[in-house]
Amino acid sequence: MSALLAISRAIDGVSERIGRAMGWFILAAVLVSSINALVRFSINRSSNSWLELQWYLFGAVVLLGASYTFKQNEHIRIDIISSRLSKATRDRIDVIGHVFFLMPLCLIIMWLGWPFFLRSFAQGEVSSSAGGLIVWPAKLLVPLGFTMLFAQAISELIKRIAIIRGLIEDPHAAGASAHGAVE
What we know:
Blueprint: H1 2-43, H2 48-71, H3 79-82, H4 87-123, H5 136-164
């Protein structure tokens, strides 16, 4: 189990670094949006590429930031129900949810997403909007984001099993979720 926990720590490290980088992407999206609005209203000019860049940055934040959100235990759950269950029951529900719902969904989207990206890349697909950007980087975000989420699901599964076995403490046991309910 110690080798699996080492793998989990490595996955967590990657998710942490990428998640923190997404903060810079948010700043970039805000700057692009602000500059685009200033130019549009001050000199009545606009560019589809600026608008599409905002979309790409937002897509990157959502798709690449999902694994970080999951690692931080800030993902969506029904706290009003979860808070009424015992810790052991919540842990078992997490294991079942990871194995039977999250991981298969990630695999399906990865399976469908890579050819979606590869076709776009091979064709050199460009936006149909005048002055638009190349499309394949945005399409790459889908399988890449779900690959990262799948890896983080493996990490969370390893940690949850270790917690159930009493090998490690739950790092989120004393903390509260973003909604204030104690986990």
